[in-house]
Amino acid sequence: MQAWLASLTEVGAGAFLALGLLTPFGGAGVVGTMTVAWMINHRTNGFFIFRPGEGWEYVMTLLFCGVAIGTVGPGRWSLDHALGIDDELIGASGLLVAAGAGGLGADALPAAFWRPPSG
After folding, report:
1. What are phi and psi of 78, to 5 degrees?
2. I want to staple 27 with a disulfide (CB 3.0 to 4.6 A). Which of 4, 43, 66, 113 is the partner?
3. 57/5 Cα distance (integer angstroms)
4. According to the model, what pLDDT value does residue 75 have?
5. Contact 56, 40 (CB under 8 A)
6. How far apart are the first and last CA of the chain?
7. 7-49 pLDDT, tens per residue?
């Protein structure tokens, strides 16, 4: 169940970001997914991705990009701009959505679905 939900989050976040639709929420999906990936898998493996077990620098780069894109918004060629909702979703409100909702999602997903490996 956890892998299915994580995949759905990635696809949904990617669709929101590609379309420029509710961009801070797409950024929140990236933030939540990458935070869980860091907590569960990459945290103890060192910095570089090519290290055994894959390091955490790429995961953190994607996490910070999710926050940045959620903060600055999608731009003129987006559905947010076409719908006239881009002004409400950029700046501090976009930052709060991307970081806040992403952080809450990162807390909820492992609490609901992750179980440490036994053995």
Report:
1. -115, 165
2. 66
3. 24
4. 87
5. no
6. 21
7. 777 788 889 999 999 999 999 999 999 998 888 888 788 777 7
